[in-house]
Design goal:
This protein has 201 residues and is α+β, with helices and mostly antiparallel strands. The strands form three sheets. Strands 1-2-7-8 form a four-stranded mixed sheet, with no helix packed on it. A four-stranded antiparallel sheet has the order 5-4-9-10, with no helix packed on it. Strand 4 and strand 5 form a beta hairpin. The relative contact order is 0.13.
């Protein structure tokens, strides 16, 4: 009775093993296929979740945007100062007779002279001016601009450029050794200054 019971259990167990093996053989293709499907799914979805490899030589680098050029403002031009126009010289002004050297050297006394000075604050054009003695010997000034504080001489018969170069060009003495007067007139004929000297014998 016991022996038969053991054999019955053994036979039952063998039947179960055979059934399980058969079931596994039936499902094995499906398992492989499912595994292949999972592999294929992994391969198909690889790009969607696999992180990018930055040093992959096949990847195209992202271009860096070029910043717009910085605008450099043009330098402000410095205005050029307009030069002040020099006013024309005056035609009349404060010119005085400083001295008269009436006694020159030699018989014709060519080194006699009358000295004048511009006491004005402006330049004066001497063109048209004249210097005259009592005997009406007249010297007419050429075009010449005498500067403020400048001193000029009018010689009887000598030419001195350092004294403005004025000369009567007279072969005889102009200024009387006993006494005389000198009148200075501007271009309009007005008397600007005069001076007289007297010599007591």
């Amino acid at each position: 009775m016991t022996r038969l019971h053991w054999q019955s259990w053994f036979g039952l167990g063998l039947v179960v093993v055979i059934v399980l093996v058969a079931a596994m053989m039936v499902d094995l293709p499906h398992a492989v296929t499912a595994g292949k499907d999972r592999v294929r799914v992994v391969e198909a979805t690889y790009p969607s979740y696999l992180p990018l490899v930055r040093n992959d030589p096949t990847l195209t680098p992202t271009s860096t945007p070029t910043p717009p050029p910085t605008h450099t403002p043009s330098p402000t031009a410095t205005p050029t100062a307009t030069p002040t126009a020099t006013p024309p010289p005056a035609t009349s002004g404060d010119i005085i007779i400083v001295s008269i050297l009436y006694r020159g050297s030699g018989s014709n006394e060519p080194d006699e002279y009358v000295e004048i000075r511009n006491n004005d604050s402006q330049r004066i054009e001497l063109s048209g001016w004249s210097l005259q003695d009592t005997a009406h010997n007249s010297f007419h000034f050429p075009s010449y601009i005498i500067q403020p504080e400048q001193v000029c001489r009018v010689y009887t018969n000598q030419d001195h450029a350092d004294w403005c170069g004025f000369s009567y060009g007279s072969e005889t003495a102009i200024w009387n050794n006993g006494g005389d007067c000198a009148w200075l007139h501007d271009s309009a004929g007005a008397t600007v200054d005069w001076d007289c000297y007297f010599v007591q014998r």
